[in-house]
Amino acid sequence: MVIPVVDMLNERKLNKYATYLSKCSREVGVHFTSLHGFTPVGRFPSIDSGSFYEMKIKRYKRAKRIISIYRHNFGFESPYQVLLDGTFAMAALQNKINLREQMPKYLNAEVDIRVTNCVLKELEKLGSTLYGALYICKQFDVESCPHQPTRTAVECMKHMARRMKNRTAYFFATQDNELTEALKQIPGIPILFIKYNSILIDKPSQATIQEIEKPKDELLEINELKKAIFGESEKPRRKRKGPKGPNPLSVKKKKKKIRLTSTDQKLRSCTKAAASKRRRRRKKKKGSEG
């Protein structure tokens, strides 16, 4: 295979060339390295394998597995409500991540991204250094929080997490370590963060795992107490099926008895008496003839 001569000074051209080489054989890649003295590395997969795509698939599978835990145990439903703070918005800006596009792809569902009023006020106070994060946050709907006067973003997000049991279930998107540690103490809180230029979901915290396993442990204890007090209960025997009745379609329907009036009953008795007389006469005739 003939390798085309490409100007490698431009990074964009280098990336395009890397994609071309990724489709070629290993020998071509080795030949390229020997000619130019380096292997093209960029946002495209390496020459040797499709590890880039494998990692991407693993990332989505991991997210799907973790989200299913929250769906089945804590009642999360699509569209997911995501609460954003300034640190996450700033990280998205630095890593050039479009949250409206990437968040639904990663969570594999419709997403409603929201920001609390406290977060917006804090970003406004911090000034021009976080103007980009403020601009991103203002693109999303404002989630009402009961804080008057406004609190810090960390305190506001903690409060929103604590009141989640009786209200809307949120995904919390943050890069703040203090807030992350506080959220991990509350069971059933999914946490999103940005790392390696991509959105990731944190694994379920210890508090979440304990909450999931708690009902099972209680049931086991109750069953053990029942066995200790009442003894082992015998398994209920299955009832044997007896012979089936006749087919209702093949059985003649019972004739309904007609209630006779007094006059009808008299007539009927008269006819019966007359019929019995006729029988007697016939018997007498047969006897005389014999």
Automatic annotation (TrEMBL):
The keyword Ligase does not apply. GO terms for biological process: rRNA processing. It is found in: Nucleus, Nucleolus. Keywords: Nucleus, Ribosome biogenesis, rRNA processing. It comes from the Eukaryota. Transmembrane segments: none annotated. Residues 237-256 form the UTP23 sensor motif region domain. InterPro entries: Fcf1/UTP23, PIN-like_dom_sf, UTP23_sensor. Involved in rRNA-processing and ribosome biogenesis. This is rRNA-processing protein UTP23 homolog. It comes from Onchocerca ochengi. The lineage of its organism: Eukaryota, Metazoa, Ecdysozoa, Nematoda, Chromadorea.
